[in-house]
Amino acid sequence: MSVAVGAAPGGFALAFSLGAQPLMLDLIAAHQARRRCRIGQALHLGGFEGQIVELTPTGLVLETAGAGVSLPARLLHEQPVVLLREAGDDG
């Protein structure tokens, strides 16, 4: 009985940590994104092309030709990023 009682919290902790991994990756990547990305930058990321309109705690929002797209920040580390235009660059 005591083994089962002791294993339950360990199993819960393991399940929680594995489930929280994507969120933690996004939080860390978003922190780095705030150092590299600026509102107004145009880029191509994850199959989407648009202008950054918001940097959130876990991602970024691109204004695309069709609509706004919310992307997880971890894509900045997992996929190639093509910087199309710097923020404030009209050309």
Fold and architecture overview:
The chain is α+β, with helices and mostly antiparallel strands and 91 residues long. It is 43% helix and 30% strand. The chain has one domain: SH3 type barrels (Roll). The chain contains 2 helices and 5 strands, in the order H-E-E-E-E-H-E. The chain has a 5-stranded antiparallel sheet with strand order 4-3-2-1-5. A hairpin with a 3-residue loop joins strand 2 and strand 3. The chain is elongated.
In what range is the share of β-strand residues? 25-35%
Q: Give the terminus-to-terminus CA distance.
A: 70 Å
DSSP summary: helix tally: 2
Tell me the domain tally: 1
Shape: elongated
How many strands, which pairing sense, and closed or not: the largest β-sheet? Answer: 5 strands, antiparallel
Q: How many DSSP E strands?
A: 5
Based on CA atoms alone, the radius of gyration comes out at 18 Å
How are helices and strands ordered from N to C?
Answer: HEEEEHE
Report the mean per-residue pLDDT as an integer. 83
What oligomeric state best describes the polypeptide chains here? single chain
The level of helicity is 40-55%
- Which architecture per CATH? Roll
CATH class: Mainly Beta
Low-confidence residue ranges: none
